[in-house]
């Protein structure tokens, strides 16, 4: 089987965290790393390829989408900045994820910046039961939003696995 990395070289943690927030953070971090691994060593053309017609989804599109998801939930909602424009909101069909090295570099830079900003917020004191205002006027708990982030990455890592397998046969892990 064409594995990504040997188990001893896998950057993802298999630790058993103590506490709910630590567990959420571990899963979120591991899924972020998984998405990055799925995109490693691919050309801009491969990253932008839409491997499962008629879908317009691509690995590059997923990176851009998840940068927007990180920004929306951590910056706009959890930090109370709902008027900040959303990232990539006009690209719901992934058409902006094109095989241009500058587009690829920008997408990965923005994604990493959003992860770093989210992790910085996660390093602050957090009350998982705190209610925050959602974009739809309702309230949601910090816990629910963080669990949603894990779910969002888990779902899209499944998509990324299928996309990568279509590109070069690498699957799993």
From TrEMBL:
Listed SUPFAM superfamilies: DinB/YfiT-like putative metalloenzymes
Listed InterPro entries: DinB/YfiT-like, MST-like
Gene3D superfamilies the record matches: dinb family like domain (1.20.120.450)
Pfam family, one: MST
Domain of life: Bacteria
The protein, known as: Mini-circle protein
Organism: Winogradskya consettensis
């Amino acid at each position: 089987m064409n594995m990504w990395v040997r188990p001893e070289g896998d950057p993802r943690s298999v630790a058993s965290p103590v506490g709910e927030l630590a567990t959420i953070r571990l899963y979120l971090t591991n899924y972020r790393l998984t998405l990055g691994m799925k995109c490693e060593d691919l050309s801009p053309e491969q990253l932008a390829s839409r491997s499962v017609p008629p879908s317009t989804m691509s690995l590059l599109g997923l990176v851009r989408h998840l940068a927007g998801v990180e920004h929306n939930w951590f910056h706009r909602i959890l930090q109370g900045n709902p008027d900040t424009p959303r990232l990539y909101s006009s690209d719901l069909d992934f058409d902006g994820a094109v095989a241009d090295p500058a587009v690829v570099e920008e997408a990965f830079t923005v994604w990493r910046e959003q992860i770093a900003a989210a992790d910085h917020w996660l390093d602050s004191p957090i009350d998982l039961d705190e209610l925050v205002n959602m974009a739809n006027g309702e309230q949601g708990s910090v816990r629910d939003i963080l669990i949603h982030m894990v779910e969002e990455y888990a779902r899209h890592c499944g998509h990324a696995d299928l996309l990568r397998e279509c590109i070069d046969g690498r699957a799993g892990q």
